[in-house]
Design goal:
Structural class: alpha+beta
Shape: globular
Helix content: 25-40%
Number of helices: 18
Radius of gyration: 21 Å
Largest sheet: 7 strands, mixed
Strand content: 15-25%
Strand order of the largest sheet: 18-19-17-16-20-21-22
Distance between the termini: 47 Å
């Protein structure tokens, strides 16, 4: 009987427990549990309910036991940039803020008083986003200094949830790289930068490589679940795990979900002024690779539109409605701050069309078409930039994640870029999470071998430009 590997994949809007095993050279996947996740408002700020998140983690693990399918190992991946601060007794200090909270407004100016924007990029390779960890910590320094003064350790969200399971604290490389506090060449904390910013050096734990064995479940957790297992550090930044499932590493990838992350794998970072001005980032990948990419607003926009229509339409219906709509051709820049956390996405889209003197969408179909067309045009611009900046021509695009099921968006991307689009796998992040565990367990010798198994195991659709 093959071993089971449990991938706990938690995104900003949902989480899932996916159980994997190797059977005759193919990767078999089974969903054990799925749960909603969302920011909550507390004292006027967007925060994460980490206690609820952890209870959902345990519930999903219990489902494995109930099914008689005990994993030999597990790993957790989540979104990046957010963190927990712990005191000397490893107790949580204050709220765990969500990246969409407005407390970071203007914090880049405070950081740039201590280091120029250009030097910061040269050192870290990370694109400017106002919610990056460095700006969140500056917001702590300004807004809740008593918390920062008491803090003894900083754990990114996947590291914190893993700590709750094992009692072991660590800083996994891929998610640590998203903080804008890691030296992009040394792949370790930039302590000189940390000191210049005025942050306490003591809170930053040694950086560990993805794929490392962390330990076992705490005895009380194992007793509650009725089993024990190893805990592995996958590429715990969810995009880093997702990129592992890209079947052709020579393609440009788009990890398509709440965000669209578009980029390529490289051995070395690109940190020129052109890269900085293009707002490209150099984040850590499995095996010490660099993910050279750009964050694009993604399906967050259509998620909000869906909610604003009282969820009466499915995502597939919204895509079909857009595909059958010929009454509008307006295209907006999806990467503006106004779309990050608007009170009403539909109104924000209409307002931008008015500002840019384009046809204003009236119906839900027209709103959806504007979103999808605007995303595809952003993909086209970013693809061209990636080729120009790296001096490499790419033959195609591999769209992974939930967004790869959107045939309308996939075909539009192929048409606009003139490149073949491969769509799949859907559960890319969970698959990458499990791949790290299986490589650690020697089921696969390396990432290339695991990627071949992915190509043989999951449906990959092909879209040709017309």
């Amino acid at each position: 009987m093959s071993n089971y590997y449990l991938a706990i994949d938690i995104g900003a809007s949902s989480g899932r427990h996916m159980l994997f095993r190797n059977e005759d050279g193919q990767i078999k996947m089974e969903e054990m549990y799925r749960f909603p996740n969302s920011m909550t408002k507390r004292n006027g700020h967007f925060v994460w309910d980490v206690e609820k998140l952890f209870s959902e983690i345990l519930e999903g693990m219990k489902r494995c036991s109930d099914a008689g399918k005990i994993p030999c190992s597990l790993s957790i991946d989540t979104w990046a940039v957010d963190y927990a601060l712990l005191d000397e007794n490893d107790h949580l200090l204050g709220d765990v803020y969500a990246y969409r909270d407005s407390r970071t407004d203007g914090m880049e100016k405070e950081v740039y008083k201590r280091i120029s924007e250009n030097e910061l990029y040269q050192r870290t390779g990370i694109q400017f986003q106002k919610f990056n960890t460095i700006y969140q910590l500056m917001a702590d320094k300004k807004g809740r200094p008593e918390i920062l003064d008491r803090a003894c350790s900083l754990l990114m969200i996947p590291d914190y949830l893993t700590f709750l399971l094992t009692g072991i604290k660590s800083s996994e490389y891929t998610v640590a790289s998203s903080t804008q506090l890691l030296d992009v060449e040394k792949r370790d904390w930039d302590y000189e930068l940390i000191k210049r910013i005025g942050l306490p050096e003591r809170i930053f734990l040694p950086v560990s490589e993805s794929g490392s064995r962390l330990g076992n479940l705490k005895p009380e957790i194992a007793k509650e679940l009725g089993y024990n297992c190893e805990v592995i550090q996958c590429a715990s930044h969810d995009t880093a795990s997702a990129v592992m499932s890209v079947i052709d590493k020579e393609n440009v990838y788009i990890s398509s979900g709440t965000w669209s992350l578009m980029g390529v794998e490289r051995k070395k970072a690109l940190c020129t002024e052109k890269d900085r001005l293009g707002n490209f980032t150099n984040e850590g990948g499995f095996g010490g690779s660099i993910r050279y990419l750009k964050n694009i607003m993604g399906l967050w926009m259509i998620q909000k539109v869906k909610q604003e229509n009282d969820d009466i339409y499915s995502f597939a219906e919204l895509a079909d409605m857009a595909g059958n709509c010929d009454s509008i051709s307006s295209v907006i820049d999806v990467d503006q701050d106004m779309f990050l956390a608007p009170d009403n996405m539909t109104r924000a889209i209409k307002k931008e069309c008015i500002r840019t003197k384009q046809t204003v969408p009236r119906s839900t179909a027209e709103i959806s078409k504007v979103v999808f067309e605007s995303l595809a045009h952003s993909y086209k611009r970013t693809f061209d930039e990636i080729e120009n900046n790296g001096g490499i021509e790419y033959s195609g695009i591999n769209i992974i994640g939930g967004g790869c099921q959107n045939s309308y968006l996939c075909q539009m991307t192929a048409d606009l870029t003139g490149k073949k689009v491969l769509a799949g796998p859907v559960e890319a992040t969970a698959i990458g999470n499990a791949m790290a565990q299986m490589i650690k367990d020697r089921v696969y010798e390396n990432l290339d071998e695991a990627r071949k198994a992915v190509a043989d195991s999951f449906e990959i659709k092909e879209y040709l430009p017309v």
